[in-house]
Amino acid sequence: MTELVKLAVADGVAAITLDSPHNKNALSQQLTGELLAHLETAGADDAVRVIVVRSALDVFCSGADLSEATTVGMGVGAQRMVDVQRAIVANPKPVVARVAGPVRAGGIGIVAAADISVAGESATFALTEVRLGLAAATISLTVLPRLTDRAAAYTFLTGNSFDALEAARLGLLTLTVPDADLDDALTTVLASLLKGAPQGLRETKKLLNRELLADIDARGKDLAELSASLFASPTAQEAMHAFLTRKKQ
User: Fold this and answer.
1) What is the bridge-based pairing of β-strands 13-18 and 5-10?
2) Model-level pTM?
3) Closest to 123 measured CA to CA, from 171, 169, 170, 58
């Protein structure tokens, strides 16, 4: 089986790279399983001071794997999305998302869960769940705390896309830079984080994420069940099949 998520460690930085070109880094059970495993490995490695989640493709993440959702269902997949966000939020190491290209639906949960998210200005975002008869249930755990109430209502209810500058203005991103400057900006952020002592970074992250982590633990299972039930509904199944059919034409 081809590995869809790769882990490389160098100079105190663990780079976790999404590399699933056949479905544009869709959040399949295999991809989320490998992502969870690498987050755990990096978090437990004393040689790792900072974790970067990035994409090898020109798409950061296309959201849920709709082919999987229309065949095996989302009972496992929905809970996995809760688990991925928790693994980022609870990780003892700072997690930085390097965002390039489109980010859709569930992928936005990864960006929101990260402690720091840096994007190139051509990145785009959309919470498209509502257009398929779904709701951004599991990722609401991390996305809603980043947004104002008005921004959340607009982005969640319309499903409209928005660019990286708007995403930073809304609070989803930490920093947006010209595409050509993305790696330099990431290097600068990593250099600053590497100046922190591991204990200081770990305990500071606990302070920052205490309420968010408690909310994930309190509501994650219920939201995963809600998400799975919406994916299984006739309305969503019909919409997803229609979407997949259009893609093939």
Assistant:
1) antiparallel
2) 0.97
3) 58
